[in-house]
Each structure stands twice: as C-alpha cells, then as structure tokens.
Amino acid sequence: MWKTILRRLLIMIPEVIILSILVFLLAKAMPGDPFTGSINPKADPEQIHHLMKLNGLYDPWYQQYWHWVVHLFHGNLGNSYQYQEPVSRLIAGRAGNTLWLALFTMILTYAMALPMGVFAGRHEGQLPDTVIRVYTYVTYCIPFFVILVIGIWVFGYILGWFPTTGSISPNANGWAQTIGSHLTHILLPGLLGALFGTVNIVQYLRSEVIDAKHSDYVRTAQSKGVPSKDIYRHHIFRNSLLPIAAFAGYSITGLLNGSIFTETVFSYPGMGLLFVNSIIYRDYTVITALVLIYGILNLLGTLLSDIILSLVDPRIRID
Length: 319
What we know:
- The protein has about 325 residues and is an all-alpha fold.
- It has 13 helices and no strands.
- It has one domain: MetI-like (MetI-like fold, Orthogonal Bundle).
- The chain has helices at about 1-30, 45-55, 60-75, 85-120, 125-140, 145-160, 175-215, 215-225, 230-245, 250-255, 260-265, 270-280, 285-310.
- The radius of gyration is 24 Å and the shape is globular.
- The mean pLDDT is about 75.
C-alpha cells in the first residue's frame, strides 16, 4: 500500500503544477486591482500606477508566475496587499479556526448520520423510516445558506442560546474560559453544518442497509439462529459502510473547503471568510494561495477516500 500511496503522491505533482498555473492566470484575469479603493477612494491614479509597478503587476504573467513559484519553494507565499502581512502567517492564523470547526462538524455529522441511516433501513416502511426520509428530503431541498440564516435567527437572536459572530469572546480569560468560548462559538455553525451534511450519508446508508438485510448471507445467518442485533452489527452495518467510506475522504476535505458559506454568514474568522474578503479586495496573493490549498486538499481527498475504503474492506486494494 505504501508504494501505491507514494506513486499516487508523485502523480499529483504535475496535477498541482497545472492547477497552480490555472489558479494564477484566473486570479490575474480578475477585473480591478488590489490598490484602488483600499488606500483611498480618491487616490491619485499616478500613485496607484506607481504601486502596481512597484509590486510587479505590470510584468508579463509568466514572469510573475515564475517569481511566485520561486518564492513558493522557499516557503514564501507573498505578502497580502490588504492586510500587509505575510500570506503564510495570515493563513496559519485562520487555519486553526477552520480546522476545529470542520473537525467538530464532521464528528457531529457521522454521530448523527450513521445511527439514523441504520435505524431507517432497519425499520423500512415504518413510521421512523418515514420521519427520517421526510427530514432528509426537506433538508436537501433547502439551500445551505438559508439553513444558516434561519439557525442564526432562531437560536442566536430569538432564543439567544449561541453567539452569532466571531470565534471567541473578548472577555474570555484563562484556558478553561477560552476553550468554553471556542466551543460555544462553533456549536451552532457545527450543528447546522452537520444537519445539512447528514442528508447524503443517511440516504446512502439506508439504501445499503435495505439491500443488505435481504441478501443471502443475512438469510443464512438468520437461519442459523444468529441474534438480529449481531447480524446488524457484524454483517449488515460493516458491508453497508462501503459506499460511505468511498466518499469519506471527500467529506473530510470538503468540510475544510465548504466552510466558506458558514464562516461568511457567521463572520467566523477562518480560511473561508479570508477567501471571500480576498476576492472582494482583489488580494491576488491570498486568492492564489487559498485556491491552491483547496485544490491540493481535493486531490488528497481522493487518495484518502481510497485508503479509508481499503481499511474498511481489506479485500479492496488501492492501485
């Protein structure tokens, strides 16, 4: 397996190179510049022209790309035009918030989806199955940002149970209050993200459980007198996890990429909100760095899904 993983990682190198070129060209093709309006809306055009020339934005694209790649190999992602600090330090300061939010959302998603999917499949056609199916259909039809807005309105403003902005309270002192404040700030966005993320997992798992419980090996186990609880635990559940494991890697990396909506609506200072602000202010260095990171995460998600699938079912080998 390790040789296969190494080969897959080597194959990703040309993919990352092509991705970096496309990302760089698309960022440069955006209208506007990072200086107009960010300094002074009434700034002298000559001053803008001088800043553009000083930062090499008038150089040919291949020359700008080469300088960017050289700096990239030295661990330098450039400086942010908007925040006036190194991009690597800027992203590192936001990555922790995004990582904790994504991890919390993933744990809640699978903790809710797996029991719901098995329960719905086990009680096919009964009232619990109908309730879960209605839940998945309704949730699937509502856009994610609408769920976020409704959640903020109900639980943040009407009930006042959770904070609606930021990642930590300014009044938090000490490690206990800091951890508690972080938890209260990610609880509502994590819960709303988990409610939306359970839909596909529940539907897939329910279908697989229904197919598995009518299969021959389950009938054989039942004829031998194996308890129903053991059949679902050792036979049906494990085989039903295969399609879930097939896109588990995409789900994990997708949470990091898909936090843009959540962080924007909640004004949560993570990588997603940073990405939106960098687009608004034409902060090219931040845009290219973040899109490249997101692209690499998607490539790693493909490999991670294959690894998880091979761990769940040893008969499957990645190649």
